[in-house]
Amino acid sequence: MRAAKIGALGIALGLSVLLELSSPARALTADGITYTLQNTSPLNATTASFDLHISGINGPSDTEGGRSAVHAFAFTTAGINFSTATPPAGFNSVPGGLNSGGCDGSGGFFCFTTPSLPPSSPALAANSTLDFLFSVTVSSGTLATWTPDFKIDWVGSKNNYDLVSLPITISPIPAPIVGAGMPGLVIACGGLLALARRRRQRIV
Question: Model's pTM, two decimal places?
């Protein structure tokens, strides 16, 4: 009886670990577009790297559509001793937030902007994705507790797109199931083995 309980517990624990590792990253959805802010390096340091992953662009759920490019995007500096930010390729870093005209240089934000306004056409293909890689440095402390608000300025067939202006949660890029998922797999297999031994003992 005890072996059966241990086996069942091992299976349950192993499966819970695997489900946690395979669960989707937490994301912000606005106007039918999904924005996922993933840290690509540890947050418990003065400098951390991030990937802003955008999906669903011009897809069936995109309520605005006709998007051709991102002009600028910004994050709040609240809760961290912000020092500098290294922009994605092709962007410049500007202190302050943004409005419908792009980075506006005011408020507790840092902003990334393209050197010139991108063309409003052609539109990106339906269900396009974009990734913007950048890093943030703080003068002291770490980025482990950073929970920024997010704004973005799109260019396309509409005159002005929604700036979003909502909190976005940081989530790690999911680890591959091989390696990071192995502890859960080992626990689950151990549970199955314990159950198999118990059944074999009953047969004998």
Answer: 0.75
Calculate the average pLDDT of the chain: 81
120: left (phi over 0), alpha (psi -120 to 50) or beta: alpha
Q: Would you give the DSSP letter of residue 118?
A: P
Strands laid side by side in the 149-156 sheet: 92-95, 109-113, 67-76, 149-156, 166-167
Domain with CATH 2.60.40 in the chain: 26-173
- Please tell me the predicted confidence (pLDDT) of residue 176: 52
Residue 117 has pLDDT above 90, yes or no: yes
d(CA 99, CA 79): 22
Instruction: Kindly tell me if the per-residue pLDDT of 9 is higher than 60.
Output: no
Q: Report helix, strand or coil for 6.
A: helix
Residue 89 DSSP symbol: T
> For residue 75, what pLDDT is reported?
98
CB 97 within 8 A of CB 103: yes
Long-range contacts of 18-21 (CB under 8 A, 24+ apart): 18/177, 18/181, 18/184, 18/185, 18/188, 20/184, 21/174, 21/175, 21/177, 21/180, 21/181, 21/184
181-198 pLDDT tens trace: 444 433 333 443 444 455
26-173, CATH topology level = Immunoglobulin-like (2.60.40)
Cβ contacts of 115 within 8 Å, gap of 6 or more: 90, 92
